[in-house]
From TrEMBL:
TM spans (from-to): 70-93, 105-129, 141-161, 181-203, 227-253, 281-299
Record InterPro entries: GPCR_Rhodpsn (IPR000276), GPCR_Rhodpsn_7TM (IPR017452)
Protein name: G-protein coupled receptors family 1 profile domain-containing protein
Alphabetically ordered keywords of this record: Cell membrane, G-protein coupled receptor, Membrane, Receptor, Transducer, Transmembrane, Transmembrane helix
Subcellular location: Cell membrane
Lineage of origin: Eukaryota, Metazoa, Spiralia, Lophotrochozoa, Mollusca
């Protein structure tokens, strides 16, 4: 990349800053030589010896249509993400029967998604509307750090879910306690925090890059060392977890197929019912994983693309918007999937939305069930269990 007076002045003046200011602020605070101003504004005249700047636009440049589309996309995602994941957490919190080992993972996933909806997506919307980073250096670091933490924690949680279901179905005698589940959940957050620290502070640095909606690690330079580092991060944080999940779900569905073939020979009805419930839960979690991969696939393509492009000014602004809006949309999809696939969550949502405390939701080993409480005000102190009717699916 050719050097220019404009770039050299920018580097000197803002060497201590981790993000870029827009061109207007630079020219106002530190006037450039006439030749540099002519070069940066595109008016060359007879200045044939002046070198063209490497960056034509320092600030983000979206068209009006792109701004409207991405803003609408983000607002819809935020509403469904915050509302939906809050309901997921509330349903499990309010009903003791929903506090299963699998639902502990689901709540952890909902917490990471809730943080995306309440902290990260609004920042992207602010940057999109202002066409520049206006929130300061501390928020730039926090935005970069939390983006990495939430993404990696969600991916690690999905990986641990697949391991948990693999062990539950292929080794039913192996007991996975809630304490072990908590250790897995803490390991997911710890891994996300460590990797986020590596990419934002230790092995790289955070900055606001032109034509983006958020802060993040600096673009990798086109060198052998940078490319090797990129591949190590990609393999350890993305491809290895996806490989583990793929292996687990293939083995799970193989085991389910074998069981279905043996089902006619086995008259143990309770065991078949439990296995059928496990199968339904596994299919639901696989759909959650598939949705995660599809939504974050544009980001994976985008991150690899910007790694191998030497001239970063050729990266279109809409590419970053599509990558992150699609990724943030995944956080809104999970509560919808739970409502579609799980009667327990569906009835829990109804209780919250309709404000009718007549459902006691449970998600036990024999499948989801609901106790419908009689609304008899005069019965006062009669124990709740005496006026409950259990309905099984």
């Amino acid at each position: 990349m050719s050097s220019s007076p404009w770039v050299s002045v920018t580097t000197t003046v803002f060497a201590d800053h981790q993000y870029h200011y827009n061109e207007t602020e630079l020219q106002t605070s530190h006037p450039l030589p006439v030749s540099d101003l002519l070069s940066s504004t595109g008016f060359h005249g007879n200045t044939s010896n002046v070198t063209s700047p490497s960056y034509d636009h320092v600030h983000t440049s979206w068209t009006l249509v792109e701004t409207v589309v991405f803003a609408t996309w983000l607002i819809i995602s935020m509403v469904f993400t915050v509302g939906g994941n809050f309901m997921v957490i509330a349903v499990v919190w309010r009903h003791r029967g929903m506090r299963t080992r699998t639902n502990m993972f689901i709540v952890n996933l909902a917490i990471a998604d809730f943080l995306i909806g309440i902290l990260l997506a609004p920042i992207s919307l602010t940057t999109l509307i202002s066409h520049d980073w206006i929130l300061g250096d501390e928020m730039c670091f926090l935005n970069s750090f939390l983006n990495a933490v939430c993404f990696l924690t969600s991916l690690q949680t999905l990986m641990y879910i697949s391991i948990h279901k693999y062990l539950s179905i292929t080794r039913p005698l192996l007991r996975i306690t809630k304490c072990k589940i908590l250790i897995m959940i803490m390991a997911a957050w710890l891994w996300g925090i460590i990797c986020a620290a590596l990419t934002t502070k230790i092995l790289s640095h955070y900055e606001y890059k032109p034509r983006t909606m958020q802060c993040g690690p600096a673009y990798p330079t086109f060198t052998a060392q940078s490319i090797i580092f990129h591949f190590i991060i990609g393999i350890s944080n993305l491809y290895l977890p996806l490989g583990i999940m793929l292996f687990c779900y293939i083995r799970i569905f193989q085991e389910i197929k074998k069981h279905m073939q043996r089902m006619d020979e086995n008259s143990a009805m309770d065991r078949n019912q439990i296995f059928s419930q496990q199968r339904r839960v596994t299919v639901t979690l696989f759909i959650v994983l598939a949705c995660f991969v599809l939504c974050w696939l544009p980001y994976c393509v985008y991150s690899n693309y910007v790694t191998f492009v030497e001239d970063k000014t050729t990266i279109p602004a809409w590419a970053n918007g599509v990558a992150y809006c699609a990724g943030y949309m995944n956080s809104a999809c999970n509560p919808i999937i739970y409502a579609w696939r799980s009667p327990s969550f569906r009835e829990g949502y109804k209780e919250i939305l309709c404000q009718e405390p007549s459902y006691v939701v449970s998600d036990g080993p024999l499948g989801p069930r609901i106790r419908v409480l009689a609304k008899v005000e005069s019965m006062g102190n009669i124990p709740e269990r005496l006026m409950a009717v259990r309905k099984h699916w």
